[in-house]
Amino acid sequence: MIPRLTLLCLVVASTFACDGLPGRPNPDDRYQRPEDVKDFGALYATNCSGCHGATGQLGPATPVGDPLYLALAAPEYLRTIIAGGVAGTAMPRFGQEAGGTLTPEQIAILASGLGARWSSREAEKLAAKAPGLVAPVGGAVPGHDGQVERGRGVYGQFCASCHGPDGRGGEKAGSIVHAAYLGLVSDQGLRTTTLVGRRDLGMPNWHDLGQRPMAPGEIGDVVAWMASHRAPAP
Predict the structure, then answer these.
(1) Per-residue confidence (pLDDT) for residue 29, from 0 to 100
(2) pLDDT at residue 142, rounded to an integer
(3) Fewer CB in 10 Å around end: N or C, the chain?
């Protein structure tokens, strides 16, 4: 017979060994309620990467990982966009109060996490010279301060070499007046792209587009010209 002391030792050893037995659940694998997710990477991958790209670039939507964009977009602006979406575009409302799935804390984590992960000092210095990301209200076209006719000339000076003489596409870049494109992007989106560029796709920002930086009024004008091609909503 096995001595009692030996048997007792075996029982104690097997008790502690149970933690490593096959089939025992890993605490890290336990189900986590969506509202309890507080990790920026997990929140971004689940809610943002499909449109904005896994690294904040190379997606169909605004490159939120572009350091210049992050230098121009205040955290409160980002929180507002994430929570309330952008009307008339594919950007949904993520805030729970607006019918979405994210809590205010999760929205704050996303807004602050973007800058923490992808901002840069160099972009912040360039942003100090830039016009405002959000346009002043008023002008010939509701929602921005530009003038369509002036914008036609601005387009020819800064944009036509890539997008073609009429905006319908050229050898280097595609159309920016196509109905499908304009139906998916807001005037603010047009301004953001003009100002920040699409570095991930080879499009320069407002500072490097031509022989000189675009003036604030010129950005508003070219946005007005592009927006004037948008088909009226049915």
Answers:
(1) 73
(2) 47
(3) C
Domain membership of residue 97 (yes or no) is: yes
Say how far apart CA 166 and CA 160 lie, in whole Å: 7
96 in the same domain as 43: yes
Do residues 106 and 50 both lie within one domain? yes
- Provide φ and ψ at 192, rounded to 5°: -60, -45
CA distances from residue 139 to 25, 132, 147, 221 in whole angstroms, order as listed: 62, 16, 7, 10
Q: Which residue has the tokens 């230098």?
A: 71
Residue type, 170: G
As for how many domains the chain has, the answer is: 2
The pair of structure tokens assigned to 214 is: 């675009």
Q: What is the mean pLDDT of residues 180-198?
A: 95
Average pLDDT of the chain to the nearest whole number: 89
Examine the fold and report which residue of 63, 92, 127 is the final residue of a domain before the chain moves on.
127
CA distance 231 to 183: 8
pLDDT, position 20: 56
* Confidence band, pLDDT 50/70/90 cuts, at residue 13: low
| Token output for 42 | 């997990």
Reported confidence tier of residue 139, pLDDT bands at 50, 70, 90: very low
Q: What confidence score (pLDDT) does residue 135 get? A: 77
Helix, strand, or coil here: 44? helix
Domain extent for 79: 37-127
The token pair that represents 131 in the structure block:
């016009």
Within this chain, do residues 108 and 169 fall inside the same structural domain, yes or no? no
Q: What is the DSSP letter of 1?
A: -
Structure-block tokens of residue 20: 């490593």
Torsion sign over Cα 160, 164, 169, 170: negative
